[in-house]
Amino acid sequence: MPILYFDCFSGISGDMIIGALLDAGLPFDVLEQEIKKLKLDDYNIREEKVVKRGISATQFIVETHEHHPHRHLVDIQKIVGESDLEEPVKNTVLEVFAKIAEAEGKIHGVSPDTIHFHEVGAVDAIIDIVGAVVGLHTMGITKVFASPLNTGGGWSKCMHGTIPVPAPATLELLKGVPIYNGGVSLELVTPTGAAIITTVCQDFGQLPPMIPKVVGYGAGTADPPVPNLLRVIIGEETSCWVSHLNHTEHKHSGPKHNEHRH
């Protein structure tokens, strides 16, 4: 059974997740066909190879001419519900948006149903969330783990003004998740990234015992001192790593005639 590990040394966002999955072998044409099932207009998606601090990666880009969307949760539910996406994908996507609405509602002191999705309700954010969920589903990934999240720090500008990093809604989403500030004055974990990872991830911590098969790098748009990348490691789950070490030792366990030559 495939197991996936997100190495979030430079944070996480929806587009970085998709970029990492594309870099790890998710076919772009399959992703494109799935996103078309949303029946959204006036957008274009593409993938681009980039290099961040000497590391080759894939960047997922959404281009749209939509300005200042003001969608409510019910609008998102209608878009996703009336799409031709598979039911498991729909359910996960709606769970992600429900989490965001709940977090935003708590921060602003209003009901989740009355929340105006601004940045998160835009077409590009909808595509990022759907694309990330579709990617995991298409690749047959059912076990997802992640490292502690480097949130970054400092200040960020949004529609409400200047706010601390992590953003209040992002931090609300990350309750119970190990996070840290790696010393970068930049928002590294976005609300969409936080909502996606806390929905699909089974646990957070060190790299679990696994046999890596594929490694992918998804690029962000920033250029901090550390590579603005999300690394994804896909492989086989294993509990036999000790046996592998023992097997290696046994291959060399005969008389060590060369030990005394020096």
From TrEMBL:
Q: Please give the organism.
A: Desulfotomaculum nigrificans (strain DSM 14880 / VKM B-2319 / CO-1-SRB) (Desulfotomaculum carboxydivorans)
Task: Check the record and name the PANTHER family matching this protein.
Answer: NICKEL INSERTION PROTEIN-RELATED, PYRIDINIUM-3,5-BISTHIOCARBOXYLIC ACID MONONUCLEOTIDE NICKEL INSERTION PROTEIN
Q: Which keywords fit this entry according to its UniProt record?
A: Lyase, Nickel
Q: What is this protein called?
A: TIGR00299 family protein
- UniProt-listed InterPro entries: Ni_insertion
The record's GO molecular-function terms, alphabetically, read: lyase activity
* Keyword Lyase listed: yes
Q: What is the lineage of its organism?
A: Bacteria, Bacillati, Bacillota, Clostridia, Eubacteriales
